[in-house]
Amino acid sequence: MLLGAGRIGLGLAALGRPGYITLGHARDLTGDYEPGAMEDHAHSVLDAAYAAGVRYFDAARSYGRAEDFLASWLASRRIAPGSVFVASKWGYTYTAGWRVDADRHEVKDHSLATLARQFAETTTRLGAYLSLYQIHSATLESGVLGDDAVIDELVRLKATGLRVGLTLTGASQSDVLRRALEITRDGDRVFDAVQATWNLLERGAGSALEDAHAAGLSVVVKEVLANGRLTARNADPAYARRLALLREEAARLDTTVDALSLTAALAQPWADVALSGAATPEQIASNLRAAEVEWSAETEAALEALTMESGAYWAERSTLPWN
What is the reported pTM? Predict the structure, then answer.
């Protein structure tokens, strides 16, 4: 089964702010955090992605200046609204002050006031380009899915032609998604799309994502490289066996370990788009080799042993350092 490059999107989490939790992020930005330099760097990655056929771009209010960088790139390249698909998110506020060593990089607030403020901020920057607006990391604990005022406002935005969705995080992704699928207004399901973590280490949300796809939601897969843990830069001895299996299968298929990991997500029958989190043009080129990889039952069997227990995966993710 060969998979097209058009189903690969670019997430800007690592491009809009100096600090992020992806392994080697500081090296990707070469330690130059001057805003103009970071904007130029983001544009170079966006150029490489666009030239290779990527048309799905994902940002968020909490990604530092990601929306600004994306907006300036769209304007400077004279890319017409409607020729690309732009998604963004609300619910976290960026609080790092352009520092890598900040005590808190973002603050979560799923209130109606935050939705109103951040939607205005996003539309000021992205305007007619915005196609999908998502709750950022909806959880049962935040109460957002039970907040009628927030849901009613999302329905109002949806009535203007905007698609609305939610993104998920943590070991309870499936529970949150199944709750979201139950939310309706006037007999119609509220959410049009879901973005969730699924990768060769963490497959826990697969069944719920299959249900969401069957219900008509678009399914976007994020963190397919597990914040760098499924790449050659992972030097953690605890991953030696897993990475050896991944390298062996990638060599057999004449591809890169990151491309193979991305292919795994795209091969899921419920996945519509898988996001690359590339932070350099070279990473984009390597990631997009996923479109050339033929996924098979043999490959699935060879890589099944990489899977972790969901709780262990998320506990480890929570310890990844901002860099």
Answer: 0.96
